[in-house]
């Protein structure tokens, strides 16, 4: 394929708006989306740079606690997509996670149904949600190959069907990404449709805490944060992260980051600012075709 539309040869010219638009359209075919309270607050995000545009949308629906999307577009340079969906704690649904950072040099992509519970430890959870999804990985493993070494801590938030890839930002790759994004999102919508409400208080509490742990991790360590800080300033970036992107971090639970991730504690009791304590690893995809983790000890915490 050639480099795309006239003048659009740079990958960073490709927009993620269509991804969001079509995903919302697909969602509305199945359920009734209502604006989430955070949507009004984050409608207009003031940026430090004239050429960058933020677009933030958030909704809830029956079974869906929060479905939110953020795109950032900088003319002819950077394009960002951060799209996620979280169920109500009455369901143990995986968290839909689509993150793409595209510059003229490359696209860094994570697309996954992030498990609520670590799939190496919780084999029942792996069987329940991922056993039937392994064909997704067969479909995309050549077109969207494993992106190489990655922050080790990230692995425990990933599922055996995660797409972690670094791509040349061509139009062809953008199309492949679009197709993978839609496939994964439709799977999530199907799981959502089929999900049966949990009635055991204990299980609901467990789901809620697992989601809170995930939100706590991402609100503190998300790789997008430095760029957000640069574009909108530290205060606004913190607010966006805690009250929009990972909304729920202040309300779904009371445990602190260090209670969940004590390995980040410094002697004076503050959180180590390093993104990773364990460093990068996993040169190759650490799951086999059946979704068994084959990455050795480094991935098991
Ligand atoms: C890089 N983003 C990365 C990397 C990953 C992710 C794995 C590669 C570096 C690394 O190994 O950490 C994404 N990591 C994730 C996701 C999870 C995770 C989704 O653990 C979920 C559990 N990326 C964004 C947004 C921005 C962004 C919104 O999603 C900017 C607003 C930027 N990501 C971004 C940039 C890099 C990056 C600039 C490269 C710089 C770096 O590696 O720090």
TrEMBL record:
Q: Name one Pfam family in it.
A: Fe_bilin_red
Checking InterPro entries in the record gives: Ferredoxin-dep_bilin_Rdtase (IPR009249)
* GO process annotations (BP): phytochromobilin biosynthetic process
The UniProt entry's coiled-coil ranges are none
Keywords (alphabetical) are: Oxidoreductase
A GO MF annotation of the entry reads:
cobalt ion binding
Query: Would you identify the family this protein belongs to, as annotated?
Result: Belongs to the HY2 family.
According to UniProt, the name of this protein is: Phytochromobilin:ferredoxin oxidoreductase
């Amino acid at each position: 394929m050639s480099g795309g539309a006239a003048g659009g040869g740079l990958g960073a010219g490709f927009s993620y708006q269509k991804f969001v638009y079509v995903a919302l359209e697909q969602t509305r075919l199945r359920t009734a989306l209502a604006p989430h309270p955070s949507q009004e607050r984050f409608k207009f995000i003031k940026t430090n740079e004239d050429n960058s545009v933020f677009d933030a949308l958030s909704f809830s629906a029956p079974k869906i606690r929060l479905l939110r999307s953020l795109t950032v577009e900088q003319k002819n340079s950077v394009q960002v997509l951060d799209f996620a969906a979280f169920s109500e704690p009455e369901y143990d649904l995986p968290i839909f996670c689509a993150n793409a950072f595209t510059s003229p040099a490359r696209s860094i992509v994570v697309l996954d149904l992030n498990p609520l519970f670590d799939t190496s430890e919780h084999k029942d959870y792996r069987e329940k949600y991922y056993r039937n999804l392994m064909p997704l990985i067969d479909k995309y493993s050549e077109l969207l190959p494993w992106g190489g070494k990655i922050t080790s801590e990230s692995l425990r938030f990933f599922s055996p069907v995660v797409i972690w890839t670094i791509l040349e930002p061509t139009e062809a790759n953008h199309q492949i990404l679009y197709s993978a994004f839609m496939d994964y999102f439709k799977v999530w919508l199907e799981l959502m449709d089929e999900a049966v409400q949990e009635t055991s208080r204990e299980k609901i509490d467990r789901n809620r805490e697992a989601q809170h742990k995930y939100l706590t991790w991402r609100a503190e360590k998300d790789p997008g944060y430095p760029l957000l800080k640069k574009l909108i300033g530290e205060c606004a970036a913190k607010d966006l992260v805690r009250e929009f992107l990972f909304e729920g971090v202040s309300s779904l639970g009371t445990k602190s980051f260090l209670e969940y991730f004590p390995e980040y504690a410094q002697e004076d009791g503050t959180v180590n600012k390093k993104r990773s304590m364990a460093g990068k690893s996993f040169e190759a995809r650490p799951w086999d075709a059946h979704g068994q983790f084959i990455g050795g000890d480094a991935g098991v915490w």
